[in-house]
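Budget justification note: compute hours in this period were largely spent on complex prediction jobs such as the one shown. Inputs:
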Amino acid sequence: MKLILITICFATLTLTAISFANADIRAPKPTTPTQGKVVLHTGLEIAPDLKAYEARLQIPQSELQNLRAALDGIDSNRTFAASIAHSSSRTVIAGVLLFLSVSFASVWLARSGKHPVPSSRGKKFMVIGLVLVAVIGAATIITRGNAGPPGYYRWKNLPKSLSEGRSTVGGLDIEIVPDDPNSSKNMRLIIPLRKEGNGAEE
Amino acid sequence: MQEVSDLIFVRRTKPDALRPSGFHTFLVVLICWTALSASLSVWIPLQFSIVTVFLLAGPHNWFELRYFLTRLPVRFGKSRPFFLSAFTGLGILTITYVSLPFLYRSVILSDEQWTNVLAVWNSLLLFWIGLLIWLRWRQKKKDLGLAVPVLLGIGALNWLQPDGFSLGLVYLHPLVALWFLDLHLRRTRPSLVKAYRGCLMALPLVLGLMILQTATTQPLNDNNGLFWRISQHSGAQLLPQVSSHLLVTIHVFLEMLHYAVWILALPLLAPIVNSANIERDRLSRLWKIPVARHPRGFPRLVFGMLSIGALLVIGLWVGFTYDYSTARDIYFTLAIAHVLAEAPFLLRML
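Corresponding output:
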């Protein structure tokens, strides 16, 4: 039971660390005070309607609730990566503790090698646990490696679809931008369209 | 010599061989309780949460206190450093936790500073658990093994996301009761252990079904102040992308399992200790608490504590009736004491 528990704890810790590990992510760009802030990622469908007289923005009730929740927590409920980026002291402490954790675990593993090994049943559980961790870890990496095409890929057929009267579905970031007295107060929908060949935005 | 006799006094009962009818009753009760709790949690999570906390929160704390008293030795003996550290840490951590809301109101702290305060408290908790593990393992002459790296790893996660650590406590604490029951069955009813662990294996399946059922549901209507509190307690603010219906459902279900262990399973199963032939009076015989029944025990103190506990339970019911929301807030703040108290007694049983 204890061995299973240790294996589960170790597996949970490793998997959590895998999901949080973004060590190769580049440092965030310095933000200017006028820059907007993405509060929610959702989906958008642009559908032409030949009978409609006015453009309509239809938001599902659940998405509205999510948006409201995201707006309510705009300051206190930052994303995990954002909270790390904004708190260097906590990140340093976490890093030191993680370093100590890995060091102690390594010492324990090295020392346990000198003593009699656990029972065959225990070894079996440990092997199964480690294989599971490795498989799930590999799956995580593969999943992240095949995260799908970039967002603009889904929007590239928008003009053609609109001209043919078909709808197009793609991802959407909802961004809150500060009021600008020099521009209109309209909502603005920015669609990422790339020219074929040079990849420049239209 | 007397101390030796004190230690012998608290000895384990012989494991009982359970009759087939008892075995089946145990299984049927376990499955029915789980099924009923899961169904009601999915169907009416907020209402179910209100009713269960009202009815069972106080009594489960009382039963937990009684159980811990039965696990307390008459004399600490070689366990003195362990118990002293346990009770000192329990007191300090409870007082500091209860003072956090007052600190929040009296001192203006930024969100970042407030998060750091939370991380410090969580770190103290982890340090205390680490100390208890070290003392217990030293007493049993066991190697610390992976305890230190695991605690350090959890500490690192805590500093990355202190709110997440606290939310983890909310969800993991009910599961500790299942661990207590497992240890208790191993000592007193070994014949039930296999069936119990089989049921435990089915728990992820039940949780998976509940998640499938509620993951795509609309968020709960929490415009009511009380409903908002319940959703927040389940982590709705910390996990805005997850349906609050799912969060409250899972939390209420786990709490129901927790209550079932403390109120039904542990009191109804065989007592963990047998106090030989020494009986002080009818009342102490009835409660089967060694620390009260022993000639050198403290019956008045024990029954005083249990009586005060009973009065507090009644007071809690009155408070819930008078102002449910406020009483709930106060209860869940003070209830950290029983969450913490489980750690040393669990370690003693390992």
